[in-house]
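W.,

You were right to be curious about this one. When I first looked at the sequence I had no strong expectations either way, so I just let the prediction run and decided to look at it fresh. Below is the sequence, 71 residues in total, followed by the output.
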Amino acid sequence: MRLNGQSDDQLDVRVSVDELVLLKTVLHEVCNGLQFTENDFQTIFGFSRGEIEGLLLHTNGVLDRLRLASE
């Protein structure tokens, strides 16, 4: 992973496909494999379950587009 640039509220980050797959796997386990209450999500991660699931969906979408592009 490499930081290419940043603004006040956004980062331009370059990640490898393997790093993105790892992120997807970890997010999936956090959302679906482990049992957390909504309060746990806020306390442990500082984000709601919905926000984390949204990042997982976005990550899945990027990986799906990569797969389609390589076919």
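Here's what jumped out at me. The longest strand covers residues 2-6. And, maybe more interesting for your project: The chain has three helices and two strands.

Coffee later to discuss?

I.
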